[in-house]
Input
Amino acid sequence: MTGLREGRIMPWADAGEPVLRVEPAPVDIADVDIADVDIADRERAAVLAVLGPAPTEIDAIARATGLASRQVQIALIELDLAGRIERQGHGLVALKP
Output
């Protein structure tokens, strides 16, 4: 499984100042190591696999996991309710320390 540490750093402009954001490395949802779980658990695990402590754009999570934006949003809501992630505004999320 690949993770955020193996991703690429991409420059983005935010409010006129350049900011470095991490582009997570792709992960194949079929490779997520979970046995006998439903699809929602696999999707949450795939999202967790690409997240790290650095803020990551939701669109980048969708690209890295191959999940539809709606599936990523649902997984993020569930992870947020479980207290596993923090939302940092402007469509950025990170794992809680």
User: Anything to note?
Assistant: The chain has one domain: 4-95.
